[in-house]
Amino acid sequence: MPFTIIRQDITKMKVDIIVNAANTELAMGGGVCGAIFKAAGPEKLQAACDKLSPIKTGQAVITPGFDLPAKYVVHTAGPVYYSYEPKESERLLVSAYTSSLRLAIEKDCSSIAFPLISSGIYGYPKDQALKIACRTIRNFLDDSDRDLDVYLAVYDQLSFTVSKALLGAVENYLGEHYVFPENMYARNMLPVECLSIGSSKTESEHIPRPAEANESCAYDLGINDLDALISDLDEPFNVTLMHLIDAKGKSDSEVYKKANIDRKLFSKIRIGKGYTPGKKTILALAVALELTPRETGELLEKAGYALSHSQKFDVIVEFFLINKIYDIDEINQVLFKYDQPLLGSL
Asked: Are 198 and 169 contacting, i.e. CB atoms less than 8 angstroms apart?
């Protein structure tokens, strides 16, 4: 049940449901709403909406998709943002997402795509609208036992805003550690230092050191026991992963949901039989298990991968691991901003 941020025209998405950020009268409007009506066939969609209108703010209703690739359109009315009533605005925005997701489950759908509701002419600050959207969708998926692929469709970078403080910290880290491929000198490694946001460590301080030096950065997670689990080179990847899940005291469902990967894919990994997941999936699992950078590097190595400072994707993920930021949606927001692949999802 992955959640994916995608740069796409929502009217062209081949999903079961697309969500229309509607007005309470369900009348054809401008922006995304107008584009959905035009693509569906404005007369047909308006006639269907007229039978269901008006709706309340935060409520959602469903119509056929008509000429759209999607089977259905869910129409939900997000709130107009009032700075003097932020809690009420947030409650209504959460309701808009949750009501839409419930309709998807009721219709036995397997995929749904949202725009960033209320972030346009309704004036909801884009960074707050994004946080609320991600948190609400994630909470719904975590509480559900149904498989549902959820997309947040963003048409361009201007409609997508991430915390400036976080982006600034990531940008600084990239400036210090990202090595352009043409300047790379056969080096794949993870840092062994415990860094924090705003650290001024130089790149030379991240060159791998002898094992005894690495022990000084043992964190506080019982790293010696975890090292023993990971270092058994004869043990298949799936067995190591299951041991790590047990060692971290987590359940399978907790891990694959937090890793933002599909239950079927997790089952395939769990069974093994010669299958080894890709690098993005392993990193998503490392985030879900809250592994340290060194533990992550050793887990990747078991599958034949490594993090490299010549890859911007790798350096960004490394930043979050070092700073012990294990919110996969927050990580994916930054990866999306840098036009990088997202963790989990596939």
From this structure: yes
Contact in structure between 10 and 18 (CB atoms under 8 Å): yes
What angle do the packed helices 164-177 and 328-337 form, to 10 degrees? 70
Residues 6+ positions from 253 with CB-CB distance below 8 Å = 263
Which pair of structure tokens corresponds to residue 52?
């269901």
Q: Are 260 and 343 in contact (CB under 8 A)?
A: yes
DSSP conformation letters of 28-66: --SHHHHHHHHHH-HHHHHHHHHTT----TT-EEEEE-T
Q: Is the CB of residue 290 less than 8 Å from the CB of residue 326?
A: yes
Please answer whether residues 19 and 65 qualify as being in contact, where contact means their C-beta atoms are separated by less than 8 angstroms.
Answer: no
Q: Beta strands 149-154 and 72-77: pairing type?
A: unpaired
Which tops the pLDDT comparison, 343 or 185? Answer: 343
Interval 214-254: pLDDT, tens: 333 333 434 455 555 555 556 888 999 999 999 999 999 99
Neighbours of 213 (CB within 10 A): 10
In degrees, to the nearest 5, what angle opens at C-alpha 321 toward C-alphas 186 and 167?
Answer: 95
Bin 222: left if φ > 0, else alpha if -120 < ψ < 50, else beta.
left
d(CA 86, CA 94): 12
Q: What is the pLDDT of residues 118-149, one digit of tens each?
A: 998 899 998 899 999 999 999 999 898 888 99
8 Å CB contact between 62 and 72 = yes
Reply yes or no: is the peptide bond before residue 54 cis, omega within 30 of 0. Answer: yes
